[in-house]
Automatic annotation (TrEMBL):
<feature type="binding site">
    <location>
        <position position="138"/>
    </location>
    <ligand>
        <name>pyridoxal 5'-phosphate</name>
    </ligand>
</feature>
<keyword id="KW-0032">Aminotransferase</keyword>
<keyword id="KW-0028">Amino-acid biosynthesis</keyword>
<dbReference type="InterPro" id="IPR017652">
    <property type="entry name" value="Ac/SucOrn_transaminase_bac"/>
</dbReference>
<dbReference type="InterPro" id="IPR004636">
    <property type="entry name" value="AcOrn/SuccOrn_fam"/>
</dbReference>
<feature type="modified residue" description="N6-(pyridoxal phosphate)lysine">
    <location>
        <position position="252"/>
    </location>
</feature>
<dbReference type="InterPro" id="IPR015424">
    <property type="entry name" value="PyrdxlP-dep_Trfase"/>
</dbReference>
<feature type="binding site">
    <location>
        <position position="280"/>
    </location>
    <ligand>
        <name>N(2)-acetyl-L-ornithine</name>
    </ligand>
</feature>
<comment type="pathway">
    <text>Amino-acid biosynthesis; L-arginine biosynthesis; N(2)-acetyl-L-ornithine from L-glutamate: step 4/4.</text>
</comment>
<keyword id="KW-0963">Cytoplasm</keyword>
<dbReference type="InterPro" id="IPR005814">
    <property type="entry name" value="Aminotrans_3"/>
</dbReference>
<dbReference type="GO" id="GO:0005737">
    <property type="term" value="C:cytoplasm"/>
</dbReference>
<dbReference type="InterPro" id="IPR050103">
    <property type="entry name" value="Class-III_PLP-dep_AT"/>
</dbReference>
<keyword id="KW-0663">Pyridoxal phosphate</keyword>
<dbReference type="InterPro" id="IPR015421">
    <property type="entry name" value="PyrdxlP-dep_Trfase_major"/>
</dbReference>
<dbReference type="InterPro" id="IPR049704">
    <property type="entry name" value="Aminotrans_3_PPA_site"/>
</dbReference>
<feature type="binding site">
    <location>
        <position position="281"/>
    </location>
    <ligand>
        <name>pyridoxal 5'-phosphate</name>
    </ligand>
</feature>
Length: 407
């Protein structure tokens, strides 16, 4: 007998670190989702930039079923064919020579930061241990990754947090120059800040960051947990900034919802993770890697990557038309299908209200802070779904503006 549950069940049995909406989705197909009552929604959220190929992509469903009938888990006492195939393809398609698999973006970043410190320790000694990241950045929820992340609210109440970490403003090269030194082991950059407000990196800034890392013998770590796997129209977003990292992390869209992550590194850097220095029980398991390999095969094609800009343009045109009518956005920005629309000052703090109104109208949208609507839909969302979802979003915005008039 199947246990019947409702949204109230969450409040009875779950740790209260989340505050999920009243909606309980039960089925998805493409960019459409249905809840327990049968109501249909257009999904512009993508599970926070995860379902890059939409819900229940038939190829991925078949791959998962096939692998489920063969082999689920071994642990890293042994390797497995799906992991080796995926690693081979990732190294062939990127700057990297070596791969470490994990289960989440936070774990991939944890591995990256540990590798950066270990590499510096091996080559320069224990004094070279400082990590520099950027204000408003987000790198995960482990104690180490929230410490590297540039948002104090995620560290509050968990102190003391790991030391040896500095921050400066994103896209401000002079601030970085003022704090980088020969004690710096790594600089960590998101090519486009997601949680921090959907803020793209300036090309000149990113290239100067690379040059400063070279000057100070520091590793450049690109956090592409959110921006990677086709999200911005190239396989990884750093390609559009004209930089080559020493370490890269990716997760989210890599498994299209199946938990999988990867840390990619150059041969020189990777040597410092020698046998026994780091590990993961589930990382690189056959199920996750089989799905991720299929995702990579589908995404890294001219059809998918080439279609991202077309869809970006449709979203920008639609959001601009809404703004021309309601005057709610001060900025519409982003790269590819990671977009942000920052509300005007009169609606400061009201982005969450637009999200709730959107759900009422049947469209899922995200926030990136209290003032930015974030859109991270499927990379293959149809033109019709874009138009339908934007029409629903416009109705939601009309409702919010009616309650909070914009001069």
């Amino acid at each position: 007998m199947t246990l019947q549950v409702t949204r109230a069940t969450f409040d009875e049995v779950m740790v209260p670190n989340y505050a999920p909406s009243a909606i309980i989705p039960v089925r998805g197909e493409g960019s459409r989702v249905w809840d327990k009552e049968g109501k249909e929604y257009v999904d512009f959220a993508g599970g926070i930039a995860v379902t890059g190929l939409g819900h229940c992509h038939p190829t991925l469903v078949n791959v998962m079923r096939e692998q489920a009938g063969q082999l689920w888990h071994l642990s890293n006492v042994m390797t497995n064919e799906p992991a080796l195939r995926l690693a081979k393809k990732l190294t062939e398609k990127t700057f990297a020579d070596r791969v470490f698999f994990a289960n989440s973006g936070a774990e991939a970043n944890e591995a990256a930061f540990k590798l950066a410190r270990r590499y510096a320790f091996d080559h320069f000694g224990p004094e070279k241990h400082e990590i520099i990241a950027f204000n408003k950045s987000f790198h995960g929820r482990t104690l180490f990754t929230v410490s590297v992340g540039g948002q104090a609210k995620y560290k509050e109440g968990f102190e003391p947090t790991p030391g040896g970490i500095k921050h400066c403003d994103y896209n401000d090269i002079e601030q970085l120059k003022a704090i980088i030194s020969d004690k710096t082991c790594a600089v960590v950059i998101e090519p486009i800040q997601g949680e921090g407000g959907v803020i793209p990196g300036d090309i000149e800034f990113a290239q100067q960051v690379r040059a400063l890392c070279d000057q100070h013998n520091a590793l450049l770590v690109c956090d592409e947990v959110q921006s990677g796997v086709g999200r911005t129209g190239t396989l990884f977003a750093h390609e559009q900034l004209g930089i080559k990292p020493d370490i890269l992390t990716t997760a989210k869209a890599l498994g299209n919802g199946f938990p999988v992550a990867a840390m990619l590194a150059t041969e020189e850097a990777a040597k410092s993770l020698a046998v026994g220095t780091h590990g993961s029980t589930y990382g690189g398991n056959p199920m996750a890697c089989a799905v991720a390999e299929a995702v990579l095969d589908i995404v890294d094609t001219p059809e998918v990557l080439g279609g991202v800009q077309h869809r970006h343009d449709l979203f920008v045109a639609g959001l601009t038309a809404i703004n021309d009518k309601y005057h709610v956005f001060k900025d519409i920005r982003g790269m590819g299908l990671l977009m942000g629309a920052e509300v005007v000052d009169q609606l400061a703090g009201k982005a969450g209200e637009i999200i709730k109104a959107g759900a009422e109208e049947g469209v899922f949208v995200l926030v990136a802070g209290p003032n930015v609507l974030r859109l991270a839909p499927s990379l293959i969302i149809t033109d019709e779904d874009i138009a339908d979802g934007l029409a629903r979003l416009e109705k939601a915005i009309a409702t919010v503006v009616a309650n909070h008039p914009v001069a």
